[in-house]
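Quick illustration, no need to memorize.
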Amino acid sequence: MARTIFCTHLNKEADGLDFQILPGELGKKVFENISKEAWTMWMSKQTMLINERKLNLMNVDDRLLLEKNMSAFLFDGEEVQIDGYTPKEK
Protein backbone atom coordinates (compact mmCIF):
# COMPACT_ATOMS: atom_id res chain seq x y z
CA MET A 1 0.00 0.00 0.00
CA ALA A 2 1.36 3.41 -0.97
CA ARG A 3 2.19 6.08 1.57
CA THR A 4 0.14 9.25 1.17
CA ILE A 5 1.73 12.58 2.05
CA PHE A 6 0.99 16.24 1.50
CA CYS A 7 3.43 17.18 -1.26
CA THR A 8 4.77 20.68 -0.64
CA HIS A 9 5.86 21.03 -4.28
CA LEU A 10 2.47 20.15 -5.78
CA ASN A 11 0.41 21.48 -2.84
CA LYS A 12 -1.77 18.37 -2.74
CA GLU A 13 -2.10 14.92 -1.22
CA ALA A 14 -0.17 12.38 -3.28
CA ASP A 15 1.71 9.09 -3.10
CA GLY A 16 4.93 9.47 -1.15
CA LEU A 17 8.29 8.00 -2.02
CA ASP A 18 8.78 4.35 -1.06
CA PHE A 19 12.05 4.99 0.77
CA GLN A 20 14.46 7.79 1.67
CA ILE A 21 16.35 8.43 -1.56
CA LEU A 22 18.96 10.84 -0.21
CA PRO A 23 21.00 10.66 3.00
CA GLY A 24 20.87 13.12 5.87
CA GLU A 25 18.44 15.85 6.83
CA LEU A 26 17.73 16.86 3.22
CA GLY A 27 16.87 13.25 2.40
CA LYS A 28 14.50 13.08 5.36
CA LYS A 29 12.85 16.35 4.28
CA VAL A 30 12.39 15.04 0.72
CA PHE A 31 11.00 11.70 1.97
CA GLU A 32 8.47 13.38 4.26
CA ASN A 33 7.34 16.22 1.95
CA ILE A 34 7.85 15.30 -1.71
CA SER A 35 5.64 12.97 -3.73
CA LYS A 36 6.67 10.43 -6.35
CA GLU A 37 5.20 12.71 -9.02
CA ALA A 38 7.23 15.73 -7.89
CA TRP A 39 10.39 13.61 -7.57
CA THR A 40 9.90 12.36 -11.14
CA MET A 41 9.57 15.97 -12.30
CA TRP A 42 12.84 16.81 -10.53
CA MET A 43 14.63 13.79 -12.02
CA SER A 44 13.75 15.04 -15.51
CA LYS A 45 15.06 18.53 -14.69
CA GLN A 46 18.18 17.07 -13.08
CA THR A 47 18.98 15.01 -16.18
CA MET A 48 18.69 18.08 -18.40
CA LEU A 49 20.82 20.13 -15.99
CA ILE A 50 23.56 17.48 -15.87
CA ASN A 51 23.61 17.10 -19.64
CA GLU A 52 23.40 20.78 -20.64
CA ARG A 53 25.97 21.99 -18.11
CA LYS A 54 28.12 18.89 -18.54
CA LEU A 55 28.23 18.34 -14.80
CA ASN A 56 30.61 15.78 -13.34
CA LEU A 57 29.04 14.11 -10.31
CA MET A 58 32.50 13.24 -9.02
CA ASN A 59 33.06 16.99 -8.58
CA VAL A 60 31.88 18.33 -5.20
CA ASP A 61 30.97 21.75 -6.64
CA ASP A 62 28.76 20.14 -9.31
CA ARG A 63 26.99 18.01 -6.70
CA LEU A 64 26.41 21.10 -4.56
CA LEU A 65 24.96 22.92 -7.59
CA LEU A 66 22.53 20.03 -8.15
CA GLU A 67 21.53 20.00 -4.48
CA LYS A 68 20.94 23.76 -4.51
CA ASN A 69 18.81 23.52 -7.66
CA MET A 70 16.90 20.54 -6.25
CA SER A 71 16.01 22.37 -3.05
CA ALA A 72 14.99 25.50 -4.95
CA PHE A 73 12.83 23.48 -7.36
CA LEU A 74 11.16 21.16 -4.85
CA PHE A 75 10.75 23.45 -1.85
CA ASP A 76 10.83 27.04 -3.14
CA GLY A 77 8.95 26.56 -6.40
CA GLU A 78 11.79 28.00 -8.49
CA GLU A 79 12.21 26.84 -12.07
CA VAL A 80 15.56 25.29 -13.00
CA GLN A 81 17.48 27.49 -15.44
CA ILE A 82 18.81 25.35 -18.27
CA ASP A 83 20.68 27.13 -21.06
CA GLY A 84 19.17 26.52 -24.48
CA TYR A 85 15.94 24.99 -23.13
CA THR A 86 12.55 26.61 -23.72
CA PRO A 87 9.62 24.97 -21.91
CA LYS A 88 6.58 23.91 -23.95
CA GLU A 89 3.65 26.31 -24.00
CA LYS A 90 0.73 25.16 -21.83
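The CA atoms of residues 52 and 84 lie 8 Å apart.
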